[in-house]
Specification:
Number of domains: 3
Structural class: alpha/beta
CATH superfamily of the largest domain: von Willebrand factor, type A domain
Radius of gyration: 24 Å
Number of strands: 19
CATH architecture of the largest domain: 3-Layer(aba) Sandwich
Length: 542
């Protein structure tokens, strides 16, 4: 669940001015009031709709103000009655699916009306040569069980988003578990328990994780370019088709539609309960435009999602879908996502490289301590809180630095004693003190050395990452170039580990971007957002 939010403003462009000006702008005096604004909490998947929303605003006069968040996190907020956005209360939400939202009464009562706008199933894209080796390129039936066998017997690897952070991974988890249970009915807790060993084996093939479908695709392409490809990509059909059309890969991926079924996103634009007359009017006008044949065809052509209106055609022609039943119990869904985080997926190994130079003294250090302590699980209760906390089997290393790297402190969240390890980690964080200069790259070199020293052998399958939090420019020790040189001497398993950089205070923004690009990581901005929320967002990528 990407907890951090970003806003996009999609405005109507025709103002109620003189008739001549209206005509010049392509409007007329009879057009609707252009100053209606819908504040919408949305999943990051909606970002590619912004250009279409701008065009719809010209036709309808309805402005859309988007604020992005993680799917499950956003739904949990709405179900709990939290509608407060950055610029006022949300009028609507727009996620890939409302299935999780409507699993309990709180979510159902939050919905006034919902309208599906487009459709995209979560499917599997496979590298062309690998698909040929596995016999998946001839149009024959392939099931999720076949993918499971390929992981277990053929070493098949893939990328998939974190189900606690992104709807594509969430949908894939539900789909794979339902297909393996093979009951023909909605998944139950006993079904999940029965297929647990098979699910664990299936997810042993997940070599790349991410907090968003877009970044997952970028990571997939980057690994192929750097000679460390994975075999497949579990993602929306529309994302895979767009990737194929982009020419970013030497050969397009073979799209596999599991014959035992998929879980499909229907992107319902959802007006929240007790809407104002203005919001209701704006919603109706916008929905009418978005579901028109003209706009539906534009959605199909530009985003490669399937249209929901007769008369618009998918681009290109697409096969029919077999839809798997979605669980009817919140308890089943929450249990499955929690099991994935704690037991089914590959364990994580993370080094937190933490700036404790003199500039961190005071409020900045206290914010860092509070943010990291929040990940120890001591504040849990909700699904989002539990999946964003450090998990059983996970290894967490704290590497504070100032003028030089300090001694690392490593905590292993062993099953049965993770709470105790978390408390020890929180105590260590509370003891951090600020002084000295900023030798960030010396600390990063040390972090990668620790990862290399900790390798358990060629079969070490842990998902490794580094998080760098610094509040200023590097003014001591080696620089970015020197750090880059050090990576070339590392084994591939370590050299490919991403650095997730956190902008804080007076961070060098361009340099942190270069560092993330060099390592295949991503930049997160905590300068105007709560540091705890940023750390929680990063959890989706670990």
């Amino acid at each position: 669940m990407a907890s951090g939010s970003k806003r996009g403003r999609i405005r109507g462009v025709c103002a109620p001015v003189l008739a001549a000006a209206l005509a010049a702008a392509g409007c007329s005096a009879s057009e609707p009031d252009p100053d209606v604004t819908l504040r919408v909490l949305a999943g990051s998947e909606i970002a590619d709709m912004e250009p279409l929303l701008e065009e719809a605003a010209e036709r309808t006069g309805v402005a859309v103000e988007l604020e992005y968040t993680g799917t499950l996190d956003g739904m949990a907020r709405i179900a709990a009655g939290d509608r407060e956005g950055e610029t006022g209360e949300y009028d609507a939400v727009w996620f890939a699916s409302n299935r999780y939202l409507t699993l309990d009464e709180g979510g159902r009562s939050a919905v006034h009306v919902q309208t599906p706008v487009m459709v995209s199933p979560v499917v599997l894209g496979v590298a062309a040569d690998r698909a040929e080796e596995l016999g998946w390129d001839d149009g024959g039936e392939v099931t999720w069980a076949d993918v499971h066998r390929a992981v277990a017997e053929e070493g098949f690897t893939y990328g998939m988003t974190n189900p606690g952070a992104s709807n594509s991974g969430f949908s894939a988890l539900i789909g794979v578990a339902s297909a393996m249970a093979d009951t023909g009915a909605a998944l139950r807790s006993e079904d999940v328990e029965q297929v647990g060993p098979e699910l664990s084996e299936f997810f042993s093939g997940q070599e790349v994780t991410a907090g968003s479908s877009g970044w997952l695709t970028e990571a997939f392409v980057r690994r192929a370019e750097r000679g460390r490809p994975v075999d497949g990509l579990v993602n929306y059909e529309s994302v895979i088709l767009s990737l194929n059309a982009s020419g970013a890969l030497e050969e397009p991926l073979t799209v596999v539609y599991p014959a035992d079924g998929v879980v499909t996103a229907d992107y319902p634009l959802t007006l929240l309960s007790d809407p104002s007359e203005e919001a209701l009017d704006g919603y109706e006008r916008l929905v009418e435009d978005l579901t028109s044949v003209r706009t539906q065809q534009q959605i199909a052509d530009r985003t490669r999602r399937r249209p929901v209106t007769a008369g618009a055609e998918p681009s290109p022609a697409l096969p029919p879908l077999v839809e798997l039943p979605f669980p009817t119990s919140r308890e089943v869904v929450d249990g499955l996502v929690s099991d994935y985080s704690a037991a089914l997926r590959r364990p994580a190994r993370t080094v937190y490289v933490l700036d404790v130079s003199g500039s961190m003294e005071g409020d900045r250090l206290r914010e860092l301590q509070s943010a990291l302590s929040a990940l120890t699980g001591t504040d849990g209760g909700s699904l989002t809180g539990s999946t964003q906390s450090f998990q059983e089997r996970e290894e967490v290393t704290l590497l504070p630095f100032s003028t030089e790297p300090a001694d690392p402190l490593t905590f292993v969240m062993e099953p049965g004693s993770a709470e105790e390890a978390g408390a020890e980690l929180a105590e260590a964080v509370a003891g951090l003190e600020a002084e000295g200069d900023t030798a960030a790259y010396d600390a990063l070199v040390r972090a990668y050395g620790l990862l290399e020293e900790g390798l358990t052998g060629p079969g070490d399958d842990r998902l490794m990452s580094v998080v760098l939090m610094t509040d200023g420019e590097v003014n001591r020790g080696t620089g970015l170039a020197g750090f880059g040189d050090s990576l070339s001497a590392r084994p591939d398993a370590v050299a490919g580990v991403p650095v997730f950089t956190v902008l804080f205070g007076e961070s060098d923004v361009p340099e942190m971007g270069e560092l993330a690009e060099l390592t295949g990581g991503r930049v997160f901005d905590a300068r105007e957002e709560d540091l705890e929320q940023v750390f929680r967002e990063i959890r989706g990528y670990q």
